[in-house]
Amino acid sequence: MVNTLEKPGFDEIRPGVKVPAKETILTPRFYTTDFDEMTKMDISVNEDELKAILEEFRTDYNRHHFVRDEQFDRSWDNIDGETRRLFVEFLERSCTAEFSGFLLYKELGRRLKGKSPVLAECFNLMSRDEARHAGFLNKAMSDFNLSLDLGFLTKSRKYTFFKPKFIFYATYLSEKIGYWRYITIYRHLEAHPEDRVYPIFNFFENWCQDENRHGDFFDAIMKSQPSILNDWKAKLWCRFFLLSVFVTMYLNDIQRSGFYACLGLDAREYDKHVIEKTNETAARVFPVMLDVDNPEFYDRLETCVKNNEKLTAIVNSNKPKALQLLQKLPLYLANGWQFIKLYLMKPIEAASAESLVR
What we know:
- By secondary structure, this protein is mainly α.
- 65% of the residues lie in helices and 4% in strands.
- The chain is built from 14 helices and six strands.
- The chain has helices at residues 35-39, 47-59, 81-112, 117-142, 150-156, 164-191, 204-224, 227-230, 232-255, 257-262, 267-282, 295-315, 321-343, 350-357, and strands spanning 12-14, 17-18, 30-32, 159-161, 288-289, 348-349.
């Protein structure tokens, strides 16, 4: 059936190809790293676990999973207006994040080939998974008469450099929070099928297991490099990355609460659940976890939400750019101050955290 759905007012590079979303501090990033340092890593301390994970990757549990079926063979005119715009944004952000993982893992697999065979194959097989995810999401966008030019995205996006240990912190959390996001949506829609407005969510149960296995791989890598987890600097950096991931997700999702509402979810309650579960999961490898049960944690996040609403109003005004910048600066500083205060909240030590998550 031909989809007659109109495009929701997005700019296009050429007919049917969406201009990528503007890069901001909250958009998915593309990463690069010190590949030479990565090739010199000694993984012998935890090589058995890494080899076991490699065998799971080779099994390729989802090799037949990402196949569009008759569920997609219909028009999606019922998803219209603001909901349609939010749906396209969700698909684009998810596709961009998965494609970012594909590019990083593919390059790591190439650079490590012949130098660290176990890691090289693991990265190559993870890039396979991420390519499937990105392709499936991009094809879903075509149901809304749009798609992303992933080749253009590769060349046009800025790449953020992180040293290997920071890549491990960031990607571990990205994969684990992805697991909890997908499985939470899947379980909600399993209990409330009337809210399953688009069939891509039927794929989330198996999909999130890819995310979980990827996270386990980064868990095993970090355990093979004890200095990444066991000194005072590790505690500071783990706090920073936990907070960065949680704040980014919360601000993004509250800004797009309408998307979650159309699935029958409250964005705040959804995010609190995902943050709680990701925090508990991370405590199994990180030396600390955040005290997200402290009311101050969400009070400060809500202050950032209000500041972001003011920033959006400024951007949408017709005022000169220079005046907008002057108006936005105090709000940027205010959000920075809230982040500092959140960072300085006393964390929970891993030994205590372990008893909490059992």
